[in-house]
User: What shape does this take?
Amino acid sequence: MRKIVLAGNWKMYKTRAESIEFLHGFLPQLTETPEEREIVICAPFTDLSLLSKNLHGTRIMLGAQNVHWAAEGAYTGEISGAMLAELGVRYVVVGHSERRQYFGETDETVNLRLKAAQNFGLIPILCVGETKQQRDAGQTENVIFNQLAIDLVDVDQSRLVIAYEPIWAIGTGDTCESKEANRVIGLIRSKLTNPDVPIQYGGSVKPDNIDEIMAQPEIDGVLVGGASLTPASFGRIVNYQKI
Ligand code: 13P
Assistant: This one.
């Protein structure tokens, strides 16, 4: 049985005060959420400590947005798995396209970060996906298979989530058609040794398309950027209706 994981990626949004204000609006909406759905908030590093205290006793799991591969060291600006684990962080996004595009992360460093996350007891959410140019050139499958081939070397697939995030669909309002996302996610699954790895879709997920996305048989959850920032929209997403 594959787990359903509905995660918000807040990116570089929300001060500590704003994160608590969000919780006040969001927590009451969880009374309707079926128990088997795992709900995760991947917050900026500065929010984690306060959120950890405030999520205690709730069903929301805390996530971070990156992790370094070393246990400690002279790596200015980076955060280790031990530092995250100490705060009660359970999930961590690794290899997000914004990290790959703007901060020079490669499949090799993504692989190191995935293994480090697992070494510290964190569940990494590995992001893969193609650019518009790669899609138009018919390279979608190749690009993703190449990413997986390097990213997953020696990674434990029993403690892993993957997010298929087509780069052209992120923050653009241009959602990947749900059947196409389902097809690509099925292909990703065909490359795994563990067929039970939850595979999410990410890219312009909104209250008005969540029901259709979650109706797809290969899609086990979503990784949500913009629509996870307001309690009402993320509430509607975690309370998606089965169709
Ligand atoms: P949007 O939902 O804002 O398109 O962002 C998707 C994303 O990058 C989640 O990691």
Summary: Residues 182 and 216 are 6 Å apart (CA to CA). The first strand starts at residue 4 and ends at 9. The chain has one domain: 4-28+36-238. The domain at 4-28+36-238 is CATH 3.20.20.70 (TIM Barrel).
